[in-house]
Structure formats: C-alpha cells, structure tokens
Design brief:
The complex is a heterodimer of chains A (about 850) and B (about 140).
Chain A (H helix, E strand, L loop, with lengths): L1 H5 L6 H12 L13 H30 L9 H36 L7 H23 L24 H29 L12 H33 L12 H35 L6 H14 L15 H13 L1 H17 L6 H24 L1 H7 L3 H31 L5 H27 L16 H31 L37 H4 L3 H6 L13 E6 L6 E7 L5 H17 L3 H20 L29 H30 L15 H24 L6 H25 L8 H33 L9 H33 L1
Antiparallel strand pairs in A: 1-2
Chain B lengths: L1 E7 L2 E7 L7 H5 L6 H28 L10 H33 L5 H21 L1 H5 L5
Antiparallel strand pairs in B: 1-2
C-alpha cells in the first residue's frame, strides 16, 4: 500500500506548481487577513514578536539610564516599577515564547515533510489572540497604568488592597488572553509533529528540532494551565472580591507563588529547549557531520522537560519552607544540570569530530556556549540554599537569569534567524554587518551583566529605582549602563542588517549552507504548499543522502502530487513509524479566526472596563462564532471539497476514519484541562492543610449526594457517546441521532443540577476561600458540562445533515473525550469536595 | 511473548516484550516499544517528589517531631521507605528496558531506539529518586 502512494510519474513542474498555487495560494490586499497558511502566520508571529522585543528592549534602556547614576531623577519610582514589570512580562510572554513558536510553526511542516500544520485556522486564531492581547497589554504603558507589581505578580502586592488601580488587571487579563495563543500553538505543533511526518520518518529519524519542539509543546500544555488558573483566581479576587489568596478569609498568598512557579520554572526551559533544538540543528551543518549522540540529546530533552517541573520551589527558598523540603528542590535543581551537560558535550563533540566552517550563525553559537555555560554555573550556585538566601532578590539573580535567558534563548535564536534568513527571503545577509552586530552585542552583554553579578554580591537589591552614592554601587552601575547601550547598538545593527538584506542581499543559492534537513527542499523562499509531492524518507539527513530530492519533489514524483480536486491535503502518519495512515484534508483561508479573535479582544477590554454584562454578551457571541466555525469541519463540503474517491489506494480522508488530528488535538486539550483542574484540586488541598485561617463549615454546603448524581448523569452521557463510537466502528449507525439527543438531554440535566446546586448551597465566595474554591469548581464543571451538551446537540444536527455517520464517523469520538474528561472531573470533585471533608471531620 | 512483572507496594508495573503484533492491546501498551515508557519513569519520579513534599508538609503541620531527634524520625523513615521502593521499581524498569533494547539491537529491530531511550530515561528517573533520598538521611524533617 505504501509503495503505491510513494512514487508517481514525473510531471511538468510549472504546470504542477500552477495547479497547487490555485488551491494553496494566498490572496493579497485586505483579504490577506483571512490567510491561514502556516508560513504566513508564522512570519507574522515572528515579526510581531520582534516589535515587542524592541518595546521591551527600550524599557530596559530606560531602566539602565535611570540606574547609571546614584539618586538619578530620570525616572520616578512608579515609572520604574512599570518599566521592570513590563520589560520582564513582554520579554517572557510576548517575545520569547511566541517567537520560538513562530519559528517552529514556520519550520516544522517543512522539516517533517508536510504541507501545513494540522489546524491552520487555529494557528491564525492563535496569532490574532496574540496580537490583540499583546496590543491591549502594551497599551497600558501609553496610558501610564501598566502593571507595576513585578512580572510574577506576587500577591498581596498585586491584590486590590495594595494595587487598587487597573494596572494588575492589565497583566492578569492581557496575559491570560495571550496564553490562549500559546496553548493553541503548542497543541497544534505537538499534533503536527506526531501525525503529519513524511512517510518513513519514524521517531528515530525525526529532525532534532522537531524533538525539541515536541517536548516544549508538551511542557506548555502541562505547564501553562497552573498560571492560567492562578490568573483567573487572582482576577476574580480583585474584581469580584472572592477570597483565594487573602489570609484573613482563609486563603494563602503562598498558593499564588506555587501556581506561578509551577508554570514559571518550566517556562525557562520552554524557552531554552527550542533554542537547544536550533543549536542541535545548526552545529552538525557547520561541523559537516551528523550530530554526535542524537539519542542522548533526545534523552536530555525529555529529562529536562520533566526535571524542570520538579524545581518550582527553588524560587521560594526565602518563603519559609523546612530545610528538608528545600533540600529536595536544591538537589533536583542540581540534577537538571546533568542533561544540560549531556547536550553541551554532544555539541562540543560534534564540532570536535567534524570539519567546522566559520560563519555568522556559528559566531552566535560560540557566543551561546560561553554565555549559557556561565549562566548555568551561577544557576548551580543558586541551587545551594544558603547562597540563595544571601543573594536573594539582588542584582546577582538578575545577572544569572539574563545569562541563562539571553545566552540560552536570544543567542541561539539569532543564530537560527541568520541561518534561515535565506529561507525566509531568498537572499543572504551581510557577513560584515552580522559579525559587527555579534561582537557589539556579545561585548555589550557581558559588560552589562558580568558586572551586575558583582553589583548583586555587593548587596544591591533588584526592583529599586535608585540608590545612594555611599553604597559602593555607583561605578558598577555606570559600567553596566554604558555596556547595555553597546549591546543595544549591536542588536540594532543586526535588525538593520536583516531589514536591508531584503533589498540589497545577494540572491541565495539553493541550500546555501549545504544543510541536511528537508526544509531546504521547499525552495528559497518556499512555495505556499511546501512540497508538490511528499517524499518517503529512510534517513535522518535527507538532503545529504539524496541530493536530487528537491528536483524529484518539484516534478511530483512522490506522494499526493495532485491538487486538481481543490483540497489542501497532506499525509497523516503513524506517530511512531511515520507510515501513512490517512490523508488529512486541511481547511482553506477563513475569516472566522479573525472574527473570533476580535470578539475575544472586545471581551478582554470590557472586562478591563468592568462592564461585566456587556462582556458576558460579547463572550456569548464569540462562543456562537466559534461554534459556527466548528460547523465547517469534517465532511462539510467547505472542509473537504471534491470527490473523495481520487485518493491513493488504501488511504481515506481523515474525516472518513476514526483517527484524525482533531482526536489528538482534543486529547491534548483535555490534558491541558486536566493540568488546570489538577492545579485547582492542589489549591483546595493546599488551603485545607496549610492556610492559617481556613475555616470549613461543620457540614459541607454541597452535601454528599448532589455531585455524585451529576457524575452519574455525565457518566451515562459518556457511556452513550462511547457506545455511538463503538457501534460506528462495527458498521452500525442506526439510532445514532437519537443516542446523541439522549446524550444532550443527560448533559442538560447535569447542567441544571449544577445550577441548582450552586443556587441551593448558599455559598459565600466573598466571605471564605473555602466557598470560593467550591463555587469555582462547580462553575468549572458547569462550563464543561454545558460545552459537552452543546457539542452533543451539534453532533445530532450534523447527523441530520449527513456530516456525521457511517460515511464520516470521526467526530463523536472527539466529543466523547470531552465527556470523558468532564465525568472524571465531576467524580474527582465529589471525591475531594464532598467525601474528603466528611472523612476529615470524622477523623479529627 | 516474554512477560516481566514487578510488583511493588501493591502497584504492578509490567514491562512486556512483545513479538507478536496480535498481542492484546493492554500488553501492547506495556511493550517497551510503546512511547508511554518515554514518560512513565520521570512521571513516577515527579509524582513521588510532589507526594514527598506534600506528605512532609502535612506531617510537619500536624505532628512535627522534636528537632533533637534530627533525621531519626518516623517521617524520615516513612519517606525513605517509599523512596527506596520507587527507586528500586524505576531501577528494575531501567534494567528490563535495557535488556529489551539489547535484544532488539541483536535482532537489528527498529524498536531499539525507543527501548534505548526508555532505558536511559528510567535510569535518569532512578538516579533522580536515589539522589533525592540523601537529604532524608541527613536532615530533620520540620526545621
């Protein structure tokens, strides 16, 4: 079967290109806003991130200007507070993660032999959420009401008692909005890597960058939900007066720290791992040999991915935790340096055993090795609790994390952009300007932050806007400030070089660096559909082992060399072996992502303005738009045009199978949901055992049986849906619509029961953290139950339209996952919130 | 089909080597060639870390032993016992995965990559668990 779809007779490349361009080409003018192609969306991500990088960079220049002299009056305390909060927040949330996801979204389909990402409209939606969220967040600077409580928003400082203005709300709402984008991007990248690889690209043949992005995406899916939960809880506390982090009402501010750092420490590696993937891709190309210890680098990626979650408490050593618990996390912090060391030795060994060629990307790689290793060493120092206490909240810590983040992310990113610039533009950058930019940045960076270690060791605290002249900090601060401007000149040189090369750069030859990976077979610049035919691969280095691949691809000699049916198609493959399973049909350009993003932006603005009724109305409208968008899926004519009989032998369109990408996307979304819900249950148990004024009532206000009843209704609905899928797999679709209608009725019953429980229980979320957590949990269950109900009802409608049934049996399985999760969540809520308190009371 | 089963603390952890594609789905899930093994070991380690931290916090909140006892407390002993069980479990999983990887390597099977990576990751989880036990021997729990 596989052979049948691998080879096709050669065709005229120009005719084939025209045929594909008619289906995949992007419109121009205002209609370009409807484009969903991964190449365009990814470039928008990267350019927008670069703009935010410049904004955050300018803020850092303002801060260094302020700190250059003692008692300087260039900035006041409030402006300085806003500047450092926004600098950190923009760099982390609006630059580092989006630019790396953008790079991944641009490269991955090309590297793994796909024509696009699996959910192109989701990618476009992610971009609009990112853009609008970023604009809303950054606009606070122009209005002088930017967040000012630090990028980690510690409460009670960020609570409405100590930050009564709108500043913190901008952070909580704006960043949460942007996180929709990050989560969507991560799910899309993970599913694309797992399910759309070229024929034969098994896991051991996967490009190392794809491994890095796969691990990163999984980390985002599990790591971001604790922060999303924390942000929602804190915003509810600020805007609605609910008690979560207020000690006087049974809450605990340290819970915020746990939720933040459960996200915050993995975030460092979420930023570093893609950069490590870039380095692992570039080093072999410039060393002219395969990566040494590929397998061990994969092990290191996965170990770091997990290890990073076991370190969150090392940011809280000064909180007052027993020494034994601190020792757990100190040891874990040291352990994570082992896989990092493995990677560094693998890169050095690759260079050592190869025939390295010097180039501008290599300069940045060398700079990375020096800076990142230095940052890693101070990281090990900070893992020692006594030293950590000594330098806590000083400029030493600021210097350390800039060595890690700039060295571990910015330098590799710049290396990567210089390397792939010919791919983006078809032109080569200037080696002279690139070299100058590197040295200015490198010298400027070390002059700024190496000195800052000493400033910190001399005791200068971070987040203070000025200092007296008799403390001995004058000279090091002046030196840091001068070098910071040198670094800024270096980065400006790089940006100017990149800008000018679009006009003056010499045309790039095909595969200008003699690289081994498949993205260089898509043309420079690439075609909108990447590959006219999808090649089979039996090697990790396709362009080194098969130099004629670009030509055979262009002549349509491989799989799916046809677009006359009007569908955007790519191969769906087995996650392990890479062997084809089905043909994935992808949606074309659409306005729905932009409309949905715009409506959510309006919701965000209305929430900031505390116009809650209007926000609820627009949110409902956004939900309608999202559901309308989901209608054009699967077997809908707009989703799969043309006759589906013209497929390669043995393969079906994914909507005609039981295992399309949507199933995987829903599964990963539920994984993220589970991480958020798990964080909520952690918060409940944490407050129950630790909060000093936690005061549960003598009798549980939600009783023992109501949640069990809700769970039973949900389980019955899930059983019905699961039965639908099983019957479809057996070739039976009789009573399918009735079963879905019954599922809808059960969901409606469960929703009504939850609403009644919320009404009858008489919970007081403003009075106690206990009741606040209960109301939030019940609302969480209600939201998911209502969602599952609406989706089941839509499925019943789609059966009527013929979009779901024996011909297209795929969607009920997707909805069943949501029901399964909601049932499990309700059961856990019953266990932890009805049963556990009763057992606790009877035991105490 | 060769089946190895390790029973530890009431929890059955099985690594099943599978020669037949017609093996039952559950057995297939526990085959070393299943990607589950890329995440299982370190997930167990992370779960143990969180549980140890949580159990320590709860125990100290309710019945903190005297600091004079140093590390000779029931809390340390209990956590050390669980640590030992987790470490041994992960170590055996690493060893079994390595054996399977060697077998696949001898047969020149494409599954050797996943088996090797799984073995290394189980070994990594074993080391992480074992090293984290050191403070349990040295430090009092609630000071």
């Amino acid at each position: 079967m596989t052979e049948a779809i691998q080879s096709s007779p050669p065709q005229d490349a120009k005719t084939l290109h025209d045929e594909f361009e008619a289906v995949w080409g992007n419109p121009r003018g205002w209609r370009a806003l409807s484009v969903v192609n991964h190449g365009n969306i990814a470039k928008r991500f990267m350019v927008t991130a670069a703009v935010f990088f410049v904004v955050a960079g300018l803020l850092s220049m303002l801060m260094r200007a302020q700190l250059a002299l003692p008692n300087h009056r260039f900035m006041g305390a409030e402006a300085y507070n806003q500047a450092f909060t926004m600098h950190g927040s923009i760099m982390m949330f609006l630059f580092a993660v989006p630019v790396l996801q953008g790079l991944g979204a641009y490269l991955l389909p090309k590297m793994i032999g796909a024509r696009d990402l699996v959910f192109p409209r989701l990618a476009a939606f992610a971009y609009w959420c990112y853009l609008f969220g970023g604009i809303i967040f950054t606009s606070s600077l122009l209005m002088g009401v930017a967040p000012n409580a630090g990028w980690f928003m510690y409460t009670p400082l960020s609570s409405n008692v100590y930050s009564p203005g709108i500043n913190s709300d901008f952070w909580l709402l704006g960043i949460t909005f942007v996180e929709i984008s990050t989560m969507a991007g991560a799910i899309e990248l993970a599913v694309s890597i797992l399910r759309t690889r070229a024929t034969g690209m098994s896991l051991q043949r996967m490009p190392i960058f794809a491994w890095a992005m796969l691990v990163t995406s999984m980390m985002i899916i599990v790591g971001f939900p604790p922060l999303i939960l924390g942000s929602i809880l804190l915003e509810l506390e600020r805007s609605a007066g609910w008690a979560f982090f207020d000690t006087t009402r049974g809450g605990d501010p340290v819970l915020w720290q746990h939720l933040f750092w459960l996200f915050g420490h993995p975030e460092v590696y979420i930023i570093f791992l893609p950069a490590a993937g870039v380095i692992s891709t570039l080093v072999p190309v410039f060393a002219r040999r395969p990566l040494v210890a590929y397998q061990w680098v994969v092990v290191a990626f996965i170990s770091i991915g997990f290890g990073s979650f076991g370190l969150w408490v090392h940011h809280m050593f000064a909180v007052g935790i027993p020494a034994l618990a601190q020792a757990f996390f100190a040891v874990a912090s040291m352990l994570v340096s082992i896989p990092t060391g493995i990677m560094i030795f693998a890169w050095i060994a690759t260079l050592w055993s190869g025939r390295p060629v010097w180039s501008v990307p290599m300069l940045w790689l060398a700079g990375f090795l020096f800076v990142f290793v230095a940052g890693g060493l101070t990281g090990v120092m900070l893992a020692f609790v006594p030293f950590n206490w000594q330098v806590h909240d000083t400029h030493f810590v600021v210097a350390h994390f800039h060595y890690v983040l700039v060295g571990g992310m910015l330098f590799p990113l710049l290396a990567g952009v210089y390397y792939w610039l010919p791919h983006f533009s078809g032109r080569m950058p200037s080696a002279r300007a690139g070299t100058l930019g590197f040295w200015l940045t490198f010298i400027g960076f070390n002059g700024t932050f190496l000195i800052m270690h000493w400033t910190g060791l001399m005791g200068m605290p971070r987040r203070v806007y000025t200092y007296d002249t008799d403390l001995g900090w004058d000279f090091p601060n002046l030196v840091s400030s001068i070098f910071s401007f040198l670094m800024a000149f270096g980065l400006v040189t790089v940006l100017v070089d990149w800008t000018l090369h679009w006009r003056f750069g010499r045309p790039a030859p095909v595969n200008p660096w003699d690289a081994d990976t498949l993205e260089w077979a898509t043309g420079t610049p690439p075609r909108s559909y990447n590959f006219a035919s999808l090649p089979p691969l039996d090697t990790r280095h396709p362009l080194w082992d098969r130099a004629d691949l670009p030509q055979t691809i262009e002549r349509g000699e491989h799989a799916l060399p046809d677009a006359s049916h009007g569908r955007r198609e790519t191969l769906g493959s087995d996650p392990l072996t890479g062997m084809p399973r089905e043909v994935i049909h992808l949606p074309g350009n659409s306005w729905w992502p932009l409309v949905a993003g715009l409506l959510l932006a309006v919701v965000c603005i209305l929430l900031l303005l505390k116009a809650y009724a209007a926000a609820a109305a627009v949110a409902a409208l956004a939900a309608v738009v999202l559901l309308r968008w989901s209608w054009e899926n699967g077997a809908h004519p707009k989703a799969a045009s043309g006759d589906a009989d013209d497929l390669p032998q043995g393969l079906k369109l994914h909507s005609r199978t039981f295992d399309g990408p949507g199933l995987w996307g829903a599964g990963l979304t539920m994984l993220a949901d589970a991480a958020l819900y798990g964080s909520l249950l952690f918060g409940w148990l944490y407050l129950w055992t630790v909060a000093p004024k936690w005061s549960p009532p003598a009798q549980s206000p939600i009783g023992l049986w109501p949640l069990l009843g809700v769970t039973a209704l949900l389980a019955a609905g899930w059983w019905l849906l699961h039965g639908c899928v099983k019957r479809l797999k057996r070739g039976l679709d009789s009573h399918l619509q009735w079963r879905l209608i019954m599922t809808t009725a059960l969901g409606a019953g469960a929703s009504a029961a939850l609403i009644a429980l919320l009404y009858v229980a008489g919970l007081q979320p403003r009075a106690s953290a206990h009741d606040a957590v209960l109301v939030f949990t019940l609302a969480f269950l209600l939201f998911h139950t209502a969602l599952g109900t609406v989706l089941a009802a839509l499925q019943a409608c789609r059966v009527g339209y013929g979009y779901v049934g024996m011909r297209a049996p795929y969607e009920p399985g997707v909805v069943a996952q949501i029901w399964q999760f909601t049932t499990a969540a309700a059961a856990l809520a019953w266990l932890f919130m009805s049963l556990f308190p009763m057992a606790w009371r009877s035991g105490s | 089909m060769v089946v190895y089963v390790l029973v530890s603390d009431g929890l059955a952890v099985g690594i099943v080597t599978m020669d037949s594609p017609s093996a039952k789905p559950v057995a297939r899930r526990f085959s070393v060639g299943h990607p589950l093994h890329l995440v299982l070991g370190l997930s167990i380690w992370f779960a143990w870390l969180c549980l140890a931290y949580g159990a320590l916090s709860v125990a100290c909140a309710f019945k903190a032993p005297s600091p004079e006892l140093a590390s000779f407390t029931q809390i340390n002993a209990g956590l050390l016992l669980v640590t030992a069980l987790v470490t041994v479990t992960l170590g055996v999983a690493a060893w079994l995965a390595r054996c399977e990887a060697a077998r696949l390597q001898a047969a020149n099977s494409p599954g050797q990559f996943l088996a090797n990576v799984a073995a290394a990751l189980y070994a990594s989880a074993t080391l992480s668990s074992a090293v984290l036990a050191v403070p349990l021997v040295l430090l009092p729990p609630c000071v």
